[in-house]
Design a protein that fits this description.
The protein is mainly alpha-helical. It contains 13 helices and 2 strands; from the N terminus they run H-H-H-E-E-H-H-H-H-H-H-H-H-H-H. Helices cover about 75% and strands about 0% of the residues.
Amino acid sequence: MKTKVMLLDKIMNYIVKRKGKQMRPMFVFLSAGVCGTITESTFRGASLIELLHTATLVHDDVVDDAPMRRGFFSVNALWKNKIAVLVGDFLLSRGLILSIENEEFHLLRIVTEAVREMSEGELLQMEKARQVDVSEEIYFEVIRKKTASLIAACCAVGAASVKASAETITKMQEIGSLVGMAFQIKDDLFDYGDEKIGKPLGIDIREKKVTLPLIHALSKASWLEKRRILKLVRDAEDKPGNVEEVVRFVRDNGGLDHAKKVMDQFRDQAVELLNSLPDTPHRQSLQLMIDYTISRNK
């Protein structure tokens, strides 16, 4: 990550010291271990994933005008949007160079496809936010592209890095996709204050992001009630009272229970697929990681 640009070095140092849980690289390593013996290629694949993920976080903070990331000031808050966009681009370019210099074109193909899906998912979510009233089908398409595609890429990259068969790579990719769906639903549940976490209550509602708990609750409401709640969501940005009322409506109409049930179904499908692979310590650890995605409290 070293460069000859002092400002860039300073920002890279700031980012590296405030790294998150690094769950995605762990998915790469565990998937590689499930499918074979971890190699240098696996390390490059994990690095590629982490570079890409960090780049998307830097860019996301610009898009969302977010001042904080992981409890610290975001790059755009400290160095402004122009620099943050360029830093995100630099991180992406480092991932590309890492792949090309080592001729890891098969890994680059998997990750590039994930970048395309993530971009489409974010734009689809923004498009639907204007309508507010969305179906479960659209919601699942958004989270499959926006979140699940990267975790799917992690598992596929891990398998591909140890030269697994095309069939096994596809299976690992599907496992990752299912885990990613469960992971995002867990994130969406946090918005309703389901557990003690760092995420502010109702941030998705304020941003007009209609997620699974609200979609299900609305499906149970009368036409008049649905119209009233959607109006509260549209006006929620500057009205804390609206957020509280929407949260109460979702809780009272089974939205949280339904979302938890669907989340568990995605997790169970992922574990069922995983159990079709040989039983090894790596597979057992990967199952623990899958369980963690829905039991975490932040």
